[in-house]
Design goal:
Blueprint lengths: L8 H15 L3 E6 L13 E4 L9 H20 L7 E5 L1 H7 L10 E5 L3 H6 L4 H15 L3 E4 L2 H11 L5 E4 L21 E3 L1
Parallel strand pairs: 1-2, 1-7, 3-4, 3-7, 4-5, 5-6
Length: 195
């Protein structure tokens, strides 16, 4: 899951991982929260866009819960072909929505962090504003499974936000298969993965 595929590095990592899962014989769904795609999609990828059509003036106030309900509907549709064995949530906005998803509560969800959060989310903040942002981020990742692109990203999350993930793993090179411990035992011959 990702908030769109506009052409950045995280997006490329997501597609590289999806392609690797497909090569491994897994069924892969990619759910995008925006209809933006600047990359060619791997053959065999189940790509689904969940767009938000709300134009009400107060839409920002209800965005996370509304988008989580929309995501729940998309997950239910996608799981008609089989329940997800692994869910990878990419980028902070998507993580905020996935964390509120009811359909994903009992799933093997991993939040993928592609950069150092303290620099991007805390660097310009001070005082109460900084503390509030730390608490919001902590609420999303505390006690959750987190995978990072480097050890430094994981250390930053733990130290700058004083949180403890349920599990913290690092994938240095997205072209290498995921560590076995991230995957649950498949219930059928092919695993079902959503990135």
């Amino acid at each position: 899951m990702i908030d769109g595929l506009p052409g950045g590095g995280a997006e490329k990592v997501v597609l590289t991982l999806a392609a690797q899962f497909l090569r491994d014989g897994d069924r892969v769904s990619l759910i995008s929260l925006r209809d933006v795609c600047e990359y060619p999609l791997p053959e065999g990828l189940n790509y689904q866009v969940v767009t938000d059509r709300c134009r009400k003036p107060w839409r920002k106030l209800t965005e996370l819960s509304r988008r989580a309900r929309q995501l729940d509907a998309a997950v239910i549709r996608a799981e008609q072909q089989g329940q997800f064995d692994l869910v990878l949530s990419n980028l902070h906005k998507t993580d905020r929505i996935v964390a509120r998803s009811r359909a994903l509560r009992e799933r093997n969800v991993w939040f993928c962090l592609h950069g150092v959060f303290s620099a991007s989310y805390l660097g310009h903040r001070t005082g109460f504003d900084r503390w509030m942002k730390q608490q919001k981020i902590k609420r999303i990742y505390q006690g959750r499974n987190v995978v990072t692109v480097s050890d430094a990203v994981g250390r930053d999350l733990v130290e700058a936000f004083a949180l403890r993930p349920a599990q913290l793993k690092t994938i240095y090179n997205p072209s290498i298969s995921l560590p076995c411990e991230l995957r649950r035992k498949p219930t059928a011959s092919a695993r079902t993965v959503t990135t």
